[in-house]
Write a structure and sequence with these properties.
The chain is about 30% helix and about 30% strand. The protein has helices at about 5-10, 10-15, 20-25, 55-65, 70-80, 125-140, 155-160, and strands spanning about 30-35, 40-50, 85-90, 95-105, 110-120, 145-150. This is N-acetyltransferase domain-containing protein.
C-alpha cells in the first residue's frame, strides 16, 4: 500500500501537492511538460472543477466506445458532482480534452470516483494514473478517507496498481435497478 501513504500523511501530502486547492480551481495546471505524441511534443494540463464542454466530453466517451448517455443527464451528473477533473492539451490555441474523471461525495467521509476516461491515443502513457493521482489528492485535501469506484473487469488490474482493492473487508456492494 505504498501508493496510498502520501495521501494519509497530512503534512507530507500538502508539501507534495502542486499548488493549494484554491489556486488549482482557478487555473489550468501544467501537469506534464513535453509529452511526445504522434511525432509532436505537447504539454498536458489539468483543470479541476471548471467548465467542461459537454460535447467535447461526449466525443471523448465516443472515442473509447462508451454507450452514449443523454446530454441533459450528463450535465445533471456533472453539476451534482463534488469534483470534476479534466486533462487536455492545446492544439492551435483550442483545448483538446483527452482525459476526464469525476467524483461524488458526502463531503465528509466518502467519495466515489466515476467516469474515468483517457482518449485511446493517449492510453499507455501514464495519464490515467496521473489523473487518478490528482483526483485522490483533491479528495484527500478535503479529508475524505473512504474512496470507492466501480470498474469494468478489464480495468480492475489498472486500479489495483493504484492501491484499490476488491471488497477489502468482505463488504459487498448492492444495487437496485428498475425492472
Amino acid at each position: 500500500m505504498k501508493f496510498w501513504k502520501p495521501f494519509f500523511k497530512e503534512k507530507q501530502y500538502k508539501k507534495n501537492y502542486y499548488c493549494n486547492n484554491q489556486a488549482i480551481k482557478k487555473k489550468n495546471l501544467l501537469l506534464i511538460k513535453n509529452l511526445k505524441h504522434n511525432s509532436k511534443v505537447i504539454d498536458i494540463y489539468l483543470n479541476i472543477n471548471n467548465h467542461i464542454d459537454l460535447y467535447d466530453l461526449e466525443q471523448l466517451c465516443d472515442a473509447v466506445g462508451w454507450v452514449r448517455r443523454p446530454i441533459k443527464k450528463v450535465k445533471i451528473a456533472i453539476d451534482n458532482s463534488f469534483l470534476i477533473a479534466c486533462l487536455f492539451y492545446y492544439n492551435k490555441n483550442k483545448k483538446q480534452l483527452i482525459g476526464f474523471a469525476r467524483a461524488t461525495s458526502d463531503t465528509s467521509f466518502n467519495a466515489t470516483i466515476w467516469d474515468v476516461v483517457i482518449h485511446p491515443d493517449f492510453q499507455g502513457k501514464g495519464l490515467g494514473k496521473e489523473l487518478m493521482n490528482q483526483v485522490i489528492k483533491q479528495l484527500r485535501y478535503y479529508d475524505i478517507s473512504t474512496i470507492t469506484l466501480f470498474a469494468d473487469p478489464k480495468v480492475i488490474k489498472f486500479y489495483k496498481h493504484l492501491g484499490f482493492t476488491i471488497d477489502p473487508d468482505g463488504v459487498k456492494g448492492m444495487f437496485w435497478y428498475p425492472l
